[in-house]
Design a protein that fits this description.
Elements: H1 6-19, H2 21-27, H3 43-65, H4 73-80, H5 85-108, H6 116-133, H7 140-154, H8 162-173, H9 182-213, H10 227-241, H11 247-262, H12 265-274, H13 285-295, H14 309-317, H15 334-346, H16 348-368, H17 372-377, H18 393-422
Length: 425
C-alpha cells in the first residue's frame, strides 16, 4: 500500500521493546533466563506474554484498518506537485522553533499538554517535506541539511530526540517504496547501524552530560542553556569516553545498557513475580485511574495529583527505582499495568482494544484528512505512543486522545488555510 510507513516503523519498534533480548541473548551466548538486570525473574515467560500481547495489539489494529484502500502513486505524485517546497520549508522551520518554546510549557504550565498538537504538527510537516522531495528534488539537499541540523541540535538538551527524526524520516521515505529492493535494504541497514552507533554513544555518555546540563544536580531542570556550548561539551565527553584506549570497553557497556533500556520485558517479569504473590490484582483500578486522569484536564482540575511513574514501578516490581527528583523516570507500560489489573488471561482484552483504537485513529485520518497527502502525514506523530508496551497507560491514552482532538480541530478548521498557502503560485 502506498502510504507513509510510520505505523509499520513504530510497530517494529514495539517488537524490539518486547523481543530484543531474545536475539541478543544468542549473540552474547547467554541463556535468556539469565538476562535480568534488576533481580532474578522469569524473563522467558514474560517474553512470551509480551509477544502474545503484541499479537493481540496487532489484531486490534488489523480489525480497524483492513478496509483502507491502496492509494495510486500517480495520484500522490500529482497532489504533491501542486505544492511549493520552499513554502513547506518555511512553515516547518517556524513550527519547529515554536515547538521548542512549547515543550517547556507542556511540562510547567497546567494543561500544557494541549500544546502537544503544535509539537505533533512539526512531525506532520517534516513528513510532508520529505514526501515532497521524493517527487521534486530541487530542495532535497536543503531538507537533508535541515534533518542533520535537527539531529545535532537534539543533543543540546536533556532528552536527545535523534531517534524521533530518524523514525519519522524512514516512515516518510518509504511512501513511494511499496517493495523492499536490495538498494532499499542496504539503505535501511546503513541507517540502522548509524542509529545503533549513536544510540550506544548517547546511552553511555548521557549520565555525565546530564550532570553538566543540570549543574551537578540530579534533576531534569537544565541550567546550561547555550545550545552550541552544550553540544561542544557533549562531544568533549564522548571523545573522552570513547578514546582509542576505552572504545571497546565503553561501546560494549553502552550496548548492553541500551539493550536493557529498550527492552521492557524485565519489568513485566518482575511485576509477575510480585503480583499476585505479594500484591493482589487491582481488578481494573489502574485502568480506571488512567481514564479519570485523562478526562480531568489539569487546567480544569488544578489540584489533580501528578503521576510519578517510578513510584508505581517500584511498588509493583519490588525494586526501588529513581524518580523525577533524581532526573529520571521508569514506567511499567500498558502491558504490565494490564496484567496487574486483570491477570494473565483477561489482560489481553484491553490490549486488543488499545490496538483497535490505534488502528481506528490511523484509518480515520487516512480517510478523512483534508486530502490524502495530509491524511498520510497525520500518522507521523505515532512514534509518541504506538509502541505502548513501555508507555504508562495514562500517557498512552492522554497522548493519543490529544493527538486525535488536536488534529481533528486542525483538519476541520485550519488546514485548508495552510494548504492554500503551501500551494504553488
Amino acid at each position: 500500500m502506498n502510504e507513509s510507513k510510520h505505523l509499520l516503523v513504530n510497530l517494529l519498534l514495539y517488537w524490539s521493546v518486547v523481543a530484543l533480548l531474545i536475539p541478543y541473548s544468542d549473540i552474547v551466548n547467554k541463556p535468556l533466563q539469565q538476562m535480568y538486570l534488576y533481580g532474578k525473574s522469569d524473563i522467558s515467560l514474560a517474553s512470551w506474554i509480551g509477544l502474545t500481547a503484541l499479537a493481540f495489539y496487532l489484531t486490534g489494529i488489523q480489525f480497524a484498518v483492513f478496509r483502507v484502500r491502496s492509494i495510486d502513486i500517480s495520484v500522490l505524485t500529482s497532489l504533491l506537485n501542486r505544492y511549493n517546497s520552499r513554502k513547506i520549508i518555511i512553515v516547518y522551520v517556524i513550527i519547529s522553533l515554536l515547538s521548542v518554546f512549547l515543550n517547556t510549557a507542556i511540562i510547567l504550565v497546567p494543561g500544557g499538554q494541549l500544546f502537544l498538537a503544535v509539537t505533533y504538527m512539526k512531525w506532520v510537516l517534516l513528513t510532508f517535506l520529505i514526501a515532497h522531495t521524493l517527487v521534486d528534488d530541487s530542495t532535497r539537499l536543503i531538507v537533508l541539511i535541515l534533518i542533520v541540523l535537527e539531529i545535532l541540535l537534539s543533543f543540546s538538551g536533556f532528552w536527545a530526540a535523534f531517534k524521533d527524526y530518524i523514525l519519522v524520516a524512514m516512515g516518510a521515505y518509504f511512501l513511494f517504496i511499496p517493495k523492499f529492493s536490495f538498494k532499499t535494504f542496504l539503505l535501511v541497514l546503513c541507517i540502522s547501524i548509524f542509529t545503533l552507533f549513536i544510540s550506544v554513544i548517547w546511552t553511555y555518555s548521557k549520565g555525565e552530560y546530564r550532570k553538566y546540563l543540570t549543574g551537578g544536580e540530579r534533576t531534569q531542570i537544565i541550567v546550561q542553556e547555550n545550545h552550541l556550548n552544550n553540544i561542544s561539551k557533549f562531544i568533549e565527553i564522548v571523545k573522552d569516553d570513547f578514546s582509542s584506549e576505552n572504545f571497546t570497553k565503553s561501546f560494549s557497556a553502552g550496548l548492553e545498557s541500551l539493550i536493557h533500556r529498550i527492552s521492557y520485558v524485565e519489568f513485566l517479569a518482575l511485576t509477575m513475580k510480585q503480583v499476585p504473590n505479594y500484591i493482589p490484582h487491582e481488578e481494573g483500578g489502574l485502568l480506571k485511574n488512567a481514564f479519570e486522569h485523562v478526562l480531568k484536564p489539569r487546567f480544569l482540575f488544578p489540584h489533580k495529583k501528578p503521576i510519578y511513574d517510578s513510584e508505581l514501578t517500584s511498588k509493583y516490581t519490588g525494586v526501588q527505582f529513581a524518580g523525577a527528583e533524581q532526573g529520571t523516570s521508569f514506567s511499567l507500560g500498558t502491558v504490565a499495568e494490564s496484567y496487574i489489573d486483570f491477570g494473565r488471561i483477561y489482560m489481553f482484552v484491553p490490549i486488543l482494544f488499545f490496538g483497535f483504537w490505534i488502528g481506528w485513529l490511523y484509518r480515520y485520518f487516512i480517510i478523512n484528512g483534508y486530502n490524502i497527502i495530509w491524511g498520510i502525514c497525520y500518522s507521523a506523530p505515532f512514534f509518541q505512543f504506538v509502541w505502548s508496551f513501555s508507555i504508562p497507560t495514562t500517557k498512552f491514552l492522554g497522548w493519543s486522545i490529544t493527538y486525535f482532538v488536536g488534529f481533528w480541530v486542525l483538519n476541520k478548521y485550519l488546514i485548508k488555510y495552510l494548504d492554500d498557502f503551501l500551494l504553488k503560485d
